[in-house]
Amino acid sequence: MRTSVLFFFSLAFLFVTNTYANKLSPTGSPRFIKPTDSCIENSIFKSKYFKSIQYIQDYVEGKRKDRKDFGKSIDNVIRNSGIRSSVYYGYIFRYRKKTDFYADKMKWLLWYESNKCNNLHWR
Q1: I need a labelling partner for 7 at 20 to 30 A (CA). Which of 28, 68, 92, 98 fits?
Q2: Which domain holds residue 119?
Q3: pLDDT tens profile 3-44
Q4: 10 Å Cβ neighbour count for 121?
Q5: Residues 60 and 21 in one domain
């Protein structure tokens, strides 16, 4: 009896979590929360912004090696978001620790989520 009750609750939990996961948008916010009609999200800005962040992440993880493009991507994200990075500006751009990058990435993503409806333009 106990195993069947445990099985039932496990199955119910999986169903609920799967249902909720299917209601999430690609950005992670629930789809059932309807965006306001006044939100004007610039798709060109979004594409360039996230492409720059992805390039930075690929460089930090060792998937890319071009320091010049890494520096340009860092500069683009900082210039457009206005959020300082913890990247080390010595002889070359670099992060001292990967956790520094992930902290910056979280700040950049939060900034975008709170400002995406402001019809942002790439600088």
Answers
A1: 28
A2: 40-123
A3: 654 555 555 555 555 555 444 455 555 555 555 557 888 899
A4: 9
A5: no
Based on the domain organization, do 19 and 52 belong to the same domain? no
CA pair distance 123, 114, nearest whole angstrom:
18
Model pTM above 0.70: no
State the Cα–Cα distance between residues 48 and 51, nearest whole angstrom.
5
**Same-domain status, 56 and 28:** no
CA atoms of 35 and 65, how far apart (whole Å): 39
Three-class SS string for the chain?
A: CHHHHHHHHHHHHHHHHHHHHHCECCCCCECCCCCCCCCECCHHHHHHHHHHHHHHHHHHCCCCCCHHHHHHHHHHHHHHHCCCCCCEECCCEECCCHHHHHHHHHHHHHHHHHHCCECCCCC
